[in-house]
Sequence to fold (226 residues):
Amino acid sequence: MTSSTEQLQDILGHSFTDEALLVQALRHASTTDQRTHSNERLEFLGDRVLGLSMAEMLYAQFPDEEEGELARRFAGLTSRDTLARVADGIGLMDYAHTQAVDAETSARSHASVVADTMEAVLGALYLDAGLDVAAAFIQGHWGELVDEDISPPKDAKTGLQEWAQARALGLPKYTIVSREGPDHAPVFTIRADVKNYGSKEGTGSSRRLAEQDAATQLLAELEKHL
Fold:
């Protein structure tokens, strides 16, 4: 970590009774041999804390909207990109403990790692101080984003599938090229193919993330030649 957790607690607006919770929330799985010592469990919890708090916020703020409209807002506001935006806004990764990786891999995985860390911090806030404190942080840092009416992003695999189907090319194919690294920090390489139009490889810490990365690169290449 490059700064003390005391500074981060000031940013979060909460002084932790159990500071170990915050330390764990900042510990990426790549830095420990025991996944239960990383921030993954807190990430799981924080995802639910954000979901409940955001659902309540939207329910109160938009009393005339139907379920589908609320669901669209919810999807955008709880997306990986929005989580990363909030985390970057408070400089969260200045305090995180992650394994050094090459620049290309870092750029690809940045939003995912940052979003996961943000969720873990929300989980830590909830365990240390309860839902009211966690919800107050969410209200303070997501409030302006609610007013922006952020739409849910279309993921790259969906975009690539729609591109291929619009041209009657069938579904894209995803193939595992390799799986490297230790069990606690694997790196998958996946190849995405659109028949007769090309292929691209992507990497990620899970098969799903690697498929998204491959789809992103292939879709960008295909759209260059429209």
User: Anything to note?
Assistant: Confidence is low (pLDDT under 50) at residues 100-108. Strands lie at 173-180, 187-194, 198-204. DSSP finds nine helices and three strands in the chain.
